């Protein structure tokens, strides 16, 4: 390992884990508490209510589980499905690939709809599968809202519409790990049955909390779902919800206070402002990429992601070298290209508690690295494109102007 110490702040621009804001860090710096004393259930009650707001659901039942996004996936699947059930799943990048692998290892029959990496979910193919499935053997449609490996955002409203058009009862299970709390996400309106995310992405917390919301239909399905589950069993949570103590096993006290602080920041800014901020930072990043003369891995504008941008490098450059050098020379952490796009793309994460000047710092670092590795870029070109857009469009925090 060629580790070298670097002074100053690390510029953390991987698409998760992301920066943790100071108020959240401070809120977590505290002693343990007895989680059966009245303070923790009282706190938990407000947390569960507020988490529902992030998912834009009033009818969903939230679960906060000590796990990561991967555990939240498992919770969604095992509580609603039985081994051998048919699932339709979209393969468009590394995270959808990993979820499909989990689905197969949990013994579901996975009907995979594959697209080229850089494209969104192929909804025409979903439409033909739904049309052909007159006997309703498809029990669930699983989709990653925002594919973090390629920077592709799928259209969930369109998926819902297809299910409705074909009057198909399949459950809609959505990975919102790099979207919820950063991109427009409407659990109730889009008829999502299970939505999930993890703490270290847009919520800007440490890793270790999974957030899952189940629709009434998903809860109903959990009553008959035969998949083996213990740690992730919703029913254990529901029992403790009923008696008002909320936790079937020990929660992380520090993370609960961290979550309170994180939610307070989000609601103080306003969830819709948070989403609008991501949209501005996403657009600014794409303008910089364009100014550098480089291509976005995402092949169509409708799929552009406002939380992560995967930048395609010319064939004579190894994108891993860019990531290595960014960290070593500039203390800038960028995301690697994963699997099929390894060496071909690097990723800029622009999600979570982040502002314009932080992003411009990152873009400036990327320019220097690009030049270092032999790509002919004019220093300042991407920064200028991004800054011009940011300065001239609606400010990030309207109330501050
Ligand atoms: C990060 C990520 C995951 C995996 O989450 P872990 O917390 O690493 O288990 C799953 N899906 C998406 C879209 C992600 O971005």
From TrEMBL:
List, alphabetically, the SUPFAM superfamilies matched.
PLP-dependent transferases
List GO molecular-function terms, semicolon-separated.
alanine-glyoxylate transaminase activity; L-serine-pyruvate transaminase activity
> Would I find Nucleotidyltransferase among this entry's keywords?
no
| Residue positions binding substrate | 347
Q: Which UniProt keywords apply?
A: Aminotransferase, Pyridoxal phosphate, Transferase
Provide GO CC annotations from the record.
peroxisome
Instruction: Name the EC number(s).
Output: 2.6.1.44
Modified-residue entries (N6-(pyridoxal phosphate)lysine), positions = 201
Pfam families recorded for this chain?
Aminotran_5 (PF00266)
Where does the Aminotransferase class V domain lie? Answer: 12-313
Which EC main class describes this enzyme?
Answer: transferase
Q: Which is a GO BP term held by this UniProt record?
A: glycine biosynthetic process, by transamination of glyoxylate
* InterPro entries on file: Aminotrans_V_dom (IPR000192), Aminotrans_V_PyrdxlP_BS (IPR020578), PyrdxlP-dep_Trfase (IPR015424), PyrdxlP-dep_Trfase_major (IPR015421), PyrdxlP-dep_Trfase_small (IPR015422), SP_NH2Trfase/AEP_transaminase (IPR024169)
UniProt cofactor(s): pyridoxal 5'-phosphate
The entry's family comment says: Belongs to the class-V pyridoxal-phosphate-dependent aminotransferase family.
The name on file for this protein is: alanine--glyoxylate transaminase
């Amino acid at each position: 390992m060629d580790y070298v110490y670097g002074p100053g702040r690390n510029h953390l621009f991987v698409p998760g884990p992301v920066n943790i804001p100071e108020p959240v860090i401070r809120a977590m710096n505290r002693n343990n508490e007895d989680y059966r004393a009245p303070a923790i259930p009282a706190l938990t009650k407000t947390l569960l209510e507020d988490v529902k707001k992030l998912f834009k659901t009033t009818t969903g039942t939230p679960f906060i589980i000590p796990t990561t996004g991967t555990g939240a996936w498992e919770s969604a699947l095992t509580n609603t499905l039985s081994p051998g059930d048919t699932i339709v799943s979209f393969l468009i990048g590394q995270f959808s690939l990993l979820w499909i692998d989990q689905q197969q290892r949990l013994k579901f029959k996975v009907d995979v709809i594959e697209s080229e990496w850089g494209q969104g979910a192929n909804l025409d193919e979903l439409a033909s599968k739904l049309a052909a499935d007159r006997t309703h053997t498809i029990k669930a449609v699983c989709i990653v809202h925002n594919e973090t490996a390629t920077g592709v955002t799928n259209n969930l409203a369109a998926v819902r519409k297809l299910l409705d058009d074909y009057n198909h009862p399949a459950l809609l299970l959505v990975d919102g790990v790099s979207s919820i709390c950063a991109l427009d996400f409407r659990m109730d309106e889009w008829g999502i049955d299970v939505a999930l995310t993890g703490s270290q992405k847009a919520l800007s917390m440490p890793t270790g909390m999974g957030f899952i919301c189940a629709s009434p239909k998903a809860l109903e399905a959990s009553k008959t779902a035969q998949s083996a589950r213990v740690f992730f069993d919703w029913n254990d949570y529901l029992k403790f919800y009923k008696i008002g103590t909320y936790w079937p096993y020990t929660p992380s006290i520090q993370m609960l206070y961290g979550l309170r602080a994180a939610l307070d920041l989000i609601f103080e800014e306003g969830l819709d402002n948070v989403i609008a901020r991501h949209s501005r930072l996403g657009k600014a990043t794409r303008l910089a990429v364009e100014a550098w003369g480089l291509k976005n891995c995402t092949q169509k504008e409708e799929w552009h992601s406002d939380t992560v941008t995967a930048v395609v490098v010319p064939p004579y450059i190894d994108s891993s070298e860019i990531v290595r050098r960014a960290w070593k020379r500039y203390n800038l952490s960028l995301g690697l290209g994963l699997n099929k796009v390894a060496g071909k793309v690097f990723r800029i994460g622009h999600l979570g508690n982040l502002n314009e000047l932080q992003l411009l710092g990152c873009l400036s670092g990327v320019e220097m690295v690009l030049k270092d590795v032999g790509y002919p870029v004019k220093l300042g070109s991407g920064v200028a494109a991004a800054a011009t857009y940011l300065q001239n469009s609606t400010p990030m925090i309207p109330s501050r102007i």
